[in-house]
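Regression test attached.
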Amino acid sequence: MASNKKYWRSIDELDQDNEIVKALEDKEFVTEIPVDDFLGDKKTLETSRTTRRDFLKYVGFSTAAATLASCDGPVVKAIPYVIKPEEITPGEANYYASTIGDGFDFANVLVKTREGRPIKIERNDLSKYNGSVNARVHASVLGLYDKNRLTGPTIDGAEVSWSEFDAVMAQKMNALQGQEVVLLTQTFASPSTEKLIGEFIEKYPNVRHVVYDAVSSSDALDAFQNKYGVRALPDYDFSQAEVIVSVGADFLGDWQGGGYSASYAKSRIPRNGKMSRHIQFEANLSLSGAKADKRVPATPSQQLQILRALAGGSTSGLPEHIADAVMKAKAQLQKAGRRGVLVTGLPSVEAQTIALDFNANSSVMNTTAPRLIRQGSNAEVNSVVNGVLSGSIKGLITVGVDPVYSLPNGAAFAEAYKNLTFSLAFTMRNDATAELAQMVAATPHYLESWGDYQLKAGVYSLSQPTIRPLFNTRQFQDCLLRWTGSSDSYYDYIKNLWNDSILDGKSWNQALHDGYIETNKPAFSTYQASSSGVLVESESDGAISGFQENSGGFELTLYTSVALGDGQQANNPWLQELPDPITRCTWDNYVTISKSDADELGLMNKHVANGGLNGSYVNIKMNDVVIENVPVIVQPGQAKGSLGLALGYGKTAAIQKEMQTGVNAYPLYKNFSTVQNVTLEKASGVHEFASVQMQSTMAGRSEDIIRETTIEIFNTRDKEFFNPVPAVEYDHQFVEVRDQKVDLWAPYDTSIGHHFNMSIDLNACTGCGACVIACHAENNVPVVGKDEVRKFRDMHWLRIDRYYSAGDSYQEEIETSDNLGAFETYHKIETPGYENPQVAFQPVMCQHCNHAPCETVCPVAATSHGRQGQNQMAYNRCVGTRYCANNCPYKVRRFNWFNYSENDEFDYNMNNDLGRMVLNPDVVVRSRGVMEKCSLCIQITQKTILDAKREGREIKDGEFHTACSRACSTGAIVFGDVNDKESEISKLREGDRMFRLLENVGTRPNVMYQMLVKNTSEE
Amino acid sequence: MPRIDQYIITHSMKQVSFINLRSKLPFLLLALMLTFSAAVYAQDEAAEESVEDTSGADIAAGEALFKANCAACHRLDRKSVGPELRGVGQKFDRDWLYKWIQNSQALVRAGDPLAVRLFEEHNRMIMTPFPGLSETDIDNILAYTDQPKAEPQAAATDAAAAASGAGGGAQGGVSNTILLGALALIFLLLVIMLFLVYNTLRRIAVAKGIHVEEEKEKRTPIWKAFIQNQFLVIVTSIVLLFAASYFAFGYLMQIGVDQGYQPVQPIHYSHKIHAGDNGIDCNFCHSGARQGKTAGIPSLNVCMNCHMSISEVSEETATAEYSKEFYDGEIAKLYEAVGWDPNEMAYTKDPKPVKRVRIHNLPDFAYFNHAQHVAVGGVACQTCHGEVEQMEVMEQHATLTMGWCIDCHRETNVALGTNEYYAKIHEELSKKYGVETLTVAEMGGMECAKCHY
C-alpha cells in the first residue's frame, strides 16, 4: 500500500486547533497587507495634507520626470584588454581543477572562471576520490570576495611591506634562539608543506610543529595510530555495505572529514531488490539519523554502552527498547559479515578502537589507503596551550587556525597570548587571534594560491591560482621559502617535489589539468604526533568517563552544522542563510532539546502570528563556564536527557555585524570532547528565529507529497500497490490523472527537440544543501538577511523540505494506523513522533508543470511555457502582481520585495564591488517587484546546445545538467532529455518508484521524484 | 482550448517606422530645395599617370616590387624595422647596392668595411637576402625610392577634396548653409520686388485718379466661422488628437533606442580603412564572435600585429575630413596606450588601457550570443551592424529593439546545412510543419527564456 503516514513539518502542526497553523494553511502571505493602517483611519485621512488631487499630481509629475530622465541613455564604457590572455574569450567560462584544503573541508573541485574571475565551485568528477564537496565548499568562492579580508601584512597593527615583514621575522626568530617557539597549524595534508616545515625547523631548531584541528578527530587518529602505526583516518566505502550501524557518528555530515554520502547513497538505492540497512543510535537528530532505516535515540553515555554491547559486551543497564535494538543490530551485523560496518562518533579512543577492531575484517573499511585530512592531536595541542599559559612557550606562529576563538579556554589563552615574546598569525581575516598578534601575515584565498594535497594515501591533488591575488598577500609556504633563504617560488618548489617523488614520470601538466593523480606510491611522510601525547590514556578520555555518572544535568553533544562547519566561513552570507536541513533555521545556532525535557524546564517554541518561530532562552552551565542566552529549539527525536549545540557560531572578530550570529560554543568544547555534562537554566526573554519550516503547510495532502514504502513491499508487490497513479473521478469512474481525457488543457507537443525532465531520488538525497548553494552561485540568488527570512521572504529557488512522520519504524506505524480508529490513530501515531520521528528530505524547486497554474493567471504573460519543458519566467515583463505565486501549488515562486543588490539595507555580497564579482554574468540580477524562480538553469542547457551546434554533433546523454544536478554528490538529482529514449532520465521516468508532486492536481510537472524506500527488515 | 500564451501580445514589440521622422525631416526639406537649384558641380578627378624615370627605370614596377619585398621592414621617409630608404640610391654605389640587397650577409662576412659598419650601426640586424631580385629590379626599386617627396601632390589632392566637398550638397553643413542663404536671398528679393511693383502700380493709380476700392464689406472671418461650426471643431480635434498621440507614441517608443548612436571614441578607428579599403575580415579582429557570447573589442595587441610596422597612413588614405596627420596621430595614441616606442621598436612604457565607448548596449535582461548567430546561424555581420566597411566612424545600425530581433527570427531560416545537431530535429519538425526549411521562430526561437534569463 502507498504511504498513509501523516507527515508534518513542525510540532505546531500536530495540534489541530492551532490557530496559527490554520491561518498558514489558509493564507500564503501571512502578514496582512497593512491597508487599514493608512486607509482605515478616517481621521488621519481627513487631516492628511496630501489630498487625492495632490497625490495624482505627484504621480503625474514623477511619471513625467521618470520619462524625461530616461530619454538620455548613459554612456557605457568598455575597456578591452591591452594584451588578451590566450585562453580567455570574453563571455566564455574557463574551468580549472583545483583543491580546497582549509583544515576542515578538503575536496577536489573545478573552478569556473569568467574573464579571470572565479565565480563558481563545482565537483571535479574526474577524481574518483574527490573528498567532500559540500555546501561550504560550494560557497567558498564567496570567501575570495570577502570585503573583510586582510589587504596586507601588519606589524603591531601598522601595514608594512613584505620585505620589512621578513626582516622583523628573522630578527625576532634570532632573538628567540634556544627558546621554544611553536608553529601551530591547521591540517595541511600537503607533502610539500610538510617538507617545507621540516626545512624551516632545520633552520630554527627551537620551533616545534603542532597540528591543531579546531574540531578534533584526535581520538580516532590516536586509535588508528595505535593499531596501524599511521596517524590517519580509515576510509569507508559504504557502497559495499549491507548493514551500517552508527553509534553517534553523523557520517553523512562532517564526521571524520565527511564526504561519505556518495558511497552511502549507492547502497541505499534499491537495486535488484536489495539495499543496505542503516541503524543509527544517536542523541541529536543528525542527517545520518534522518536517513536511517531505524533510528534509536540514545544519550552519549548510553551510546558508549551500546557500542560495547555491539562489540560483545552486555546490554544490562540499557533501557529495554534500546537493548532490544542493540541485539537486533548485532545480529544483523554478524549476518552481514564482511559487509557490515560499525562506525562511531564518540570522542573516546576506547570507542574508536572498538569500532576499528570490529571493522578489521570489513570490506567497507579501508585501512591501507587511509585519509590524511585530520592530523591534530589533543594531547599536543593541550601541551601547547599549557605552555602558552605557563609562559614556557615564548613564541607562537599560527597558520590557518584561530585558537583565541576556537580553544575551549580561549579567554585565558588570549591573556597569555598577549604576553608572548613573539606572536605571528597567518590568516585571511583579522580574526580573534590576529587581533592580538604582534605580526599578522595576510594569506591569500585558496583560489589565489598554489598547493598540493594528499587527501588519502596514494591520491595526490593540486590546487592552482585562478585569479591574481586581490590583495597584498603571500601564502604561508612562500613565506617559509623566503625565511629558509630559498629564492624559489612555491610553485617551483611543488613542481620540483612532484617531479622528483610523486609524478613518477607522469606529466605535470596532465596532473595539473586533472587536479589530482593516483599513484601506487606509499603515503608520503605524514605528520606524526610525537609519541608522548598519543596514547590511549590521554586526557581526552576524561569526558567519556564523565558522562557515565549522570549528575542530573544534561549530556550535551556538540556538532558542526551543515552551514558553518567549524566556523571558518562565518562571514559568508550564503552559508548563513542556508537553512539547517533538520531544524530549517537560518542565521543562528541554538540548543536542541527533547520535548519532554523542554516541558519539564518550561521551555517552549511557539509560532507567532506572522508565522515566525519564537523560542525561550537558556543559560548553559558547565562547571565554571556559563554560556548565556542560548536560544532553544525543541527538537523531535532528540534523546531525552541530551542536548545539541552547533560549534562555529558566535564569531565577532573580522566579521560584519549582520553575520555575528549565534553563540560561541567552543568554551564548552573542553578537552576537545564533543560530549559534555552541562546543566540548563531557563533565562528570560524570547528569541526570534528565522526558520523557514512553517512557511507553507502540507494542508493535509501528505500522500501526494511524499511517498514511502518498505523494501519488502517494493520487492513483492505491484507498482499499483505502493505507488499508484492518482485517480480522479470522470464520468462517475476513477480515471488516472495522467489520462488526457481528464485534463482541462490540450497537451503540448514536446516530442520534438529536447524535453527536459529532472528526477530527484528521495532515497539518495541526504539534505546536505550543496544544491541550494550551487543554485545561489549559478543564478545570482540574493541573500535577504535574517529579518526577511523570518518573514518567509527568503529567495532560495531550491528548498529542501524536511518532513517528520511518526512511528519508531514504518512497520509500527502501518500497524497502528490499520488497527485503530481515527481519533486514536491520530493520538497514537503522533505522540511517539516527538520522541523519534522518521524524517524525509524533499528538494523542491519549480516543478516546471506542463500545465502550469501560474502561466494562466499572469496578466502580462510574463511566464510562459517553452517547448523544451521549462516554465519560463521573463523578469523584464513581470509587473509583480504575484498572482502566479498565489496560484502555484508548490510555492516555489519567490518575490523580490526589495532591491537586494546595491542596497545598503541588504549589506551582503551584492552590495559591494568585491562581492559582486561573484555574480554570474549570464544571469540577470533581478530588481525589486518581480517574481523569480528556478529556470532549470536554462543558461546552462542553452550553452550545452550551442556547443553541440558549433561542433555540429548530437548531444549525448549526460551532457545536460543544471547547477543542482552538478552539485549533487549522491546522484539524487538527475537531469536530462526525455526525448532521448536511451537516457538515464527516460529510464527513471519509467521506473517503479517514480511519482510526481501533487500529481492529482493535474499540473503535469517535468520534475519527478523517486519514492522513499526503507529497509525495515529486522533480521 | 486555446492557451493564453499563444496570444502573447506583440504590438508593443513592433517598432513604428516613423521613429526617424524627426531626424529625417531636415533632409527632406533640403532635398526639396535642392531640386530648385540647378547648379551642377563636377567632381575633379585626380588621375595619376605613371611617370617614366629619365634613366629608363620603371618607377611603377619599382613601387610594386618595393611594396612586395621591402615594405615589411622599410619605409620611404622614416625608420621602421630597417632604415628609411628615400634617396638610398644616391647614397651608395650602385654595384655595392646590388650585392648588398641580394645578400647582405655575404658582404658582411667578406669583410666589406661599409657593409660591416652598416651592420653594426643597425644593431646587427640581419636583412633578408633577396637573391631573386635582378639588377633591373633593383634599379626599378631604387628609382622608386629616389623619387623626391611628393609635397605638391598632396596639396592638389586636398584642394580637389575641398572642391568636391563644396559640391556634394549632402556632404557637409557649410554647403547647406550657403544654399539656404542663397535661396533666402532670392526669396527676399522677390518679396521686395513684389512690394515695389505694388507700390508703383498704386502710385500710378492715384496719379490717374482711379479710386482703388478698399474691401470694406464685413464678412465673418474664416476662423470665427470655423469656431461656430461645431462639427468641424470636433472633427478637427479628433484628428489633432490622433495625430498628437501618433507622434507622442512614436516619440516615446524611440526612447532608449539608440539607432545611429555614433559616439566619439578615445582613439579614432576607421572601419572603412580597415574592413573596407584593406578588406580585413571582421573575424580577424573580432575573433570572439565565432567563439562566444561577445564579439569583443579587439585587445590592443591585435592592433599591434599590423601596426607594429604601420606607424603612418599613406597619402591616399587621408580625406578632406581626416588628414594624414590626424590618422598618424591616432596611431600614435595607440602606441601610447600599448606602451610601444616606435623609434626603439620596443614596448618600453606602461600600457594605459583605452576606455572605449560601447556603441551596442543591450540591457542586462536580454541575452545575446554572437557565436549562435555568426558561427551557427551564419548570419553576416552586416545584417545587424550595417555596412561597417563603409563607416569611417562606427555607429549603431539597427534599432536593437525586441521587435527587431523577433522580426528577424520570424523570417530567417535556420542554417540547417550539414549540422549534425539539427539532423533529427529537422526531420521531425519538417514532418510536423510539412516544410523543408524552418524559421528560427519555428525552432523555438521566440520563447521568452531563450533570451531572457
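Expected vs. actual: identical. The longest strand of chain A covers residues 675-691.
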